[in-house]
Write a structure and sequence with these properties.
Blueprint lengths: L12 E7 L4 E6 L5 E6 L4 E5 L4 E5 L5 E6 L5 E6 L3 E6 L5 E6 L5 E8 L18 H4 L26 H6 L7 E7 L3 E6 L3 E7 L5 E2 L8 E14 L5 E12 L1 H5 L8 E10 L1 H5 L1 H28 L20 H9 L3 H44 L2 H4 L6 H47 L12 H12 L4 H4 L10 H10 L15 H25 L2 E10 L4 H4 L5 E7 L15 E9 L10 E6 L1 H4 L10 E7 L4 E9 L3 E8 L10 E7 L6 E3 L18 E2 L6 E5 L3 E8 L4 E6 L3 E6 L12
Parallel strand pairs: 22-27
Antiparallel strand pairs: 1-31, 2-3, 3-4, 4-5, 6-7, 7-8, 8-9, 10-11, 11-12, 12-13, 14-15, 15-16, 16-17, 17-18, 19-20, 20-21, 21-22, 22-26, 23-24, 24-25, 25-28, 29-30, 30-31
Length: 749
């Protein structure tokens, strides 16, 4: 901490100045704790306390392109270059879940929870309670593969409950993880684990909100820069670059077209389905996400029980789980005797009992809970007035419920066969041991030499006739079933039995695959239904960009934040959309054609300008801030209510790492916002109306802290703690306290 300067002289107090091993490219403060997550240039994630104590470091092994925190701060979402989104535990950085929602790099993540407290009254039964724990013990864990140490499978240890807490969303507020990739796709996941929708901005039909223009537009070659879901989950603001053109269909019909507008655009998407149906979506996501966890338990259990080996290599795999090494194999072939038989008996019977434990402790409990949860979903699907609107199809759910019941019957059937086989082998080895003892008591010259190969041949025969292995076959194998049993199964259909009468001919693995396929089909319907209800409501063209490929890779500092609108009280259900106001800030690059280079644009009210166009055509307000001479904007962030933090670098520096910089806070409430008219045609850049009303910033008139280093993005600002972390070009991290009236922040973790 500095000692030669006092906080009274300087606006911001320097708390720390620490070196970093590698340059930081992404940084985000935890919304609930004094924790800072940082991503280095070599794609490592570092988690530090406010006092700069490092808690953990992880490396996903792939390039990290985005990062955000869960609203409660207990998990962190990481977007990767290959389109994967991984969720990590804040306590130790362990992988909790991995979703392959995209096919290209995830460039923006935003995790938002419902800002309204869930009510619990007789009129609106919005609080959902998961009843599974009332009837079942805790859900089974994924079994470990034999021979692996804890952690090798990528799953959590039995003593850790982080993964279970992630899946148990009953006690969470309803929240949505929104992700956007560089090809224009946006995915939505409830609680970050259950995919519920996907759109592509290239395919969106963008209407014009003006009565005198009925044309629709589309964005071509669009690339997403930022996505931001509103606090009430009703709107999504998308910052993207691309070419805005009139719909080709309308042009073919002879309508007058306009030239393409290539630049930075702001889209407003209607996501009110999340708010209107949050209670129904909460219940479906709760059941479906837990079912997916249990499916993974069953898949791994079947994998543990299966061995893809030949009789010559491992004849003990007749039970599907006995594992032998080459030395043991030689021992069994060449050295069988009384002691050898006992050891073989122990291995074989132990393998059978191990299979029974896998079924009883993992596979069967998972199948039972899946059946219960599908029953819950089946009941919900029959409530058509509430759940048909989100795509919960009764027919598909009924089919998936039947498949889960059939799997449970197959598990019971497998257990009976397995128990019978284990008992038969136990009897066989008891008989063999008694025979050896009797033979060994006779004089050796009266008996033929003991030949252990005869025992191996006998076991080989049993292997060829193995009744257990067919149930675990991955390929299509028909289980032989007598005609009388099949006829009885067909007769049970009339009394409410399974409509699929051929399940007795299928293996356990094939039955699991059919059940998993039916679940995917059933849960795809809500995904498709919600995706179709997310529509584009408005577009705000901001400024032009060159159409060259080089301009597409330019990173424009921008920030989108929603604040409570003090002028509007949220008093009822109907007024929920007006409880927040959006602030959008962005830097206008020097190659913009609007002749307003080196300026920062700030708009507010875009989210509500559409609903007010007929009443107040000038409801959208914006302002242009001219950066002080000799500086350019490196990054910016909206901070608390109506404050903007700017990070500025000197433009006269000889190199990127030399020179000075400054951090500035501007009060948005004091800015001369100008109303922008939205009553004209869409094909113009809205910021051009502000060229004559630019506000010039001066260092001596604003709240500024000079920094004796050249700085680089990102600027990490914590609104809850009033601190900002700035990264110098020479691999240093500087933490400042932004609020003068706050005491020194101490580590409270």
């Amino acid at each position: 901490m500095e000692t030669d300067e006092t906080p009274r002289v300087l606006p911001f107090q320097l708390q720390f100045d620490k070196p970093v091993a590698s340059q930081i490219k992404i940084a985000e403060w935890n919304p609930e704790k004094d924790l800072l997550a940082m991503v280095t240039e070599d794609s490592k994630i570092l988690l530090h306390r406010f006092n700069w104590q490092r808690l953990w470091t992880i490396s996903p092994g792939r390039c990290i392109t985005s990062l955000c925190w869960r609203p409660d701060g207990k998990a962190i979402a990481v977007g990767l270059e290959d389109g994967t989104i991984s969720l990590h535990d804040v306590e130790n950085g362990k992988l909790l879940r991995s979703l392959k929602s995209h096919t290209v790099a995830v460039v923006s993540l935003n995790w938002e929870e419902d800002g309204q407290v869930i009510r619990d009254d007789s009129v609106n039964n919005s609080k959902y309670e998961d009843r599974t724990s009332c009837f079942f013990p805790p859900a089974p864990r994924v079994p470990r593969m034999p021979g692996l140490v804890p952690g090798d499978t990528g799953f959590m240890d039995d003593s850790e409950d982080s993964f279970q807490e992630l899946s148990n969303s009953s006690y969470q507020r309803f929240n949505i993880l929104c992700s956007g990739d560089k090809d224009g796709s946006i995915c939505f996941s409830i609680f970050g684990i259950f995919p519920i929708g996907k759109i592509n901005i290239h395919k969106l039909s963008i209407p014009t909100p003006f009565a005198n223009e009925q044309a629709t537009y589309r964005l071509l070659n669009a690339s997403i820069s930022k996505v931001a879901l509103s606090k009430d989950l009703c709107h999504l603001i998308v910052m993207c670059s691309g070419e805005l053109n009139q719909d080709e269909v309308e042009l073919q019909e002879g309508q007058l077209g306009v030239d393409g507008m290539h630049g930075l655009h702001c889209l407003l998407l209607d996501t009110s389905i999340f708010w209107k149906r949050k209670n129904e979506l909460h219940q479906v996501a709760q059941q479906a996400s837990n079912i997916e966890d249990l499916i993974e338990v069953i898949r791994t259990s079947l994998s543990v029980m299966w061995l893809d080996s030949s009789p010559q290599e491992e004849f003990l795999s007749l039970l599907g789980g006995a594992r032998t090494s080459p030395p043991v194999h030689q021992f069994l072939v060449n050295s069988l005797g009384e002691l050898g038989v006992k050891r073989v008996s122990k291995v074989v019977c132990g393998a059978g009992k191990e299979l029974q434990h896998v079924v009883l402790d993992h596979l069967q409990p998972a199948a039972e809970i899946i059946g219960f949860r599908m029953g819950e979903l089946r009941g919900l699907s029959r409530w058509r007035t509430r759940f048909q609107g989100i795509g919960l199809d009764e027919t598909l759910i009924n089919n998936a419920t039947e498949k889960s019941g059939i799997l449970l019957v197959q598990v019971e059937r497998f257990m009976r066969v397995l128990s019978s086989v284990v008992q038969q082998f136990s009897n066989f080895f008891n008989w063999l041991l008694k025979c050896i003892k009797l033979l060994m008591q006779e004089p050796s010259d009266q008996l033929l030499p003991y030949n252990s190969e005869l025992v191996v041949i006998f076991l080989k025969f049993l292997y060829d006739q193995d009744p257990v292995r067919p149930f675990l076959e991955l390929s299509e194998v028909v289980i032989e079933t007598d005609m009388e049993t099949l006829q009885r199964v067909r007769e049970l259909v009339h009394f409410g039995g399974f409509s699929d009468c051929e399940y007795l001919r299928r293996t356990l693995s094939e039955e699991f695959q059919q059940m998993e396929s039916s679940f995917k089909e059933a849960f795809l319907m809500p995904f498709t239904t919600i995706s179709q209800k997310i529509l584009c409501k408005d577009v705000l063209p901001l400024f032009a960009l060159p159409s060259s490929p080089a301009s597409m890779s330019v990173t424009v500092p921008m920030s989108v934040t929603y604040y409570k609108d003090a002028s509007t009280a949220m008093s009822s259900y109907q007024t929920h959309e007006h409880g927040f106001i959006d602030y959008i800030s962005f830097q206008i690059p020097g190659d913009s054609s609007l002749d307003i280079a080196n300026c920062i644009g700030i708009s507010k009210g875009f989210m509500h300008s559409l609903s007010n166009i007929t009443e107040d055509p000038a409801s959208l307000e914006a302002v242009l801030l001219s950066v002080p001479d000799g500086y350019h904007c490196v990054d910016l962030s909206l901070y608390k209510e109506g404050q903007i933090v700017l990070l500025l670098n000197e433009t006269t520096a000889a190199s990127e790492s030399s020179g000075e910089s400054c951090m500035m806070i501007v009060q948005a409430n004091d800015l001369p916002f100008v109303s922008i008219s939205r009553s004209s045609c869409i094909n113009h850049w809205n910021l051009s109306q502000l060229k004559d009303s630019v506000m010039y910033l001066h260092l001596e008139n604003e709240k500024v802290r000079l920094i004796p280093h050249s700085v680089v993005a990102p600027l990490a600002v914590s609104a809850s703690r009033g601190v900002a972390c700035v990264f110098a070009a020479r691999k240093r991290a500087l933490v400042y306290i932004l609020d003068e009236d706050e005491d020194d922040i101490s580590d409270t973790e």
